[in-house]
């Protein structure tokens, strides 16, 4: 797909429990994920969270909506971005001493000319987020 951005970043962690506590707090995402200025939980239904996300960049396209599932047993946070500057799934989890962020998103057609920069920007942001989650 033309606007597809897919990658995985990983970081070894010492204290999985502490990392999971930070990772699983959706409202705290802006503390670790620099691209998220604000995360509001709009509602919860059958364990699925409805989120309104204000992204860090300025302008009228800086708001998106996502559905999130926090799976305590698997220590996984699944974010499905359903409306906004990009759509798709980001799966973040901690297992076996490793913190992982898997990205499979599609950027809006308006941003396709910037895809190489955006892809690099998302990857670097995810790497920094994992670093902050592992070492607050």
Walk me through what this model shows.
With 136 residues, this protein is of the alpha+beta class. Helix content is 24%, strand content 47%. It is built from three helices and seven strands, in the order E-H-H-E-E-E-E-E-E-H. Strands 1-7-6-5-4-3-2 form a seven-stranded antiparallel β-sheet, covered by helices on one side. Strand 6 and strand 7 form a beta hairpin. The longest helix is centred in the C-terminal third of the chain and has 20 residues. It is globular.
Biggest sheet strand line-up: 1-7-6-5-4-3-2
Strand content: over 45%
Order of helices and strands: EHHEEEEEEH
The pLDDT mean sits at 95
- How is the biggest beta sheet arranged? 7 strands, antiparallel
Structural class: alpha+beta
What is the terminal-to-terminal distance?
A: 36 Å
Number of helices: 3
Count the E strands: 7
Helix amount: 10-25%
- Rg of Cα set: 14 Å
* Low-pLDDT segments, ≥5 res: none
Which key phrases capture this entry?
single chain, about 140 residues, alpha+beta, 7-stranded antiparallel β-sheet, about 25% helix
Secondary structure layout plus pairing:
Layout: E1 4-12, H1 16-23, H2 29-32, E2 36-45, E3 48-55, E4 63-71, E5 76-83, E6 86-95, E7 98-107, H3 115-134
Antiparallel strand pairs: 1-7, 2-3, 3-4, 4-5, 5-6, 6-7
């Amino acid at each position: 797909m033309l606007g597809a951005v897919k990658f995985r970043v990983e970081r070894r962690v010492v204290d999985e429990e502490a990392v999971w506590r930070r990772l699983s707090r959706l409202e705290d995402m802006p503390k670790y994920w620099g691209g998220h200025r604000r995360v509001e939980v709009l509602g919860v239904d059958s364990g699925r969270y409805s989120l309104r996300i204000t992204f860090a960049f300025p302008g009228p396209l800086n708001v998106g909506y996502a559905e999130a599932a926090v799976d305590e047993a698997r220590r996984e946070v699944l974010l499905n971005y359903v409306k906004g500057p990009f759509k798709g799934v980001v799966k973040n989890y901690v297992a076996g001493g490793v913190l992982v962020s898997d990205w499979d998103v599609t950027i809006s057609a308006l941003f396709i000319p910037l895809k190489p920069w955006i892809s690099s920007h998302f990857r670097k942001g995810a790497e920094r987020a994992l670093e902050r989650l592992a070492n607050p």
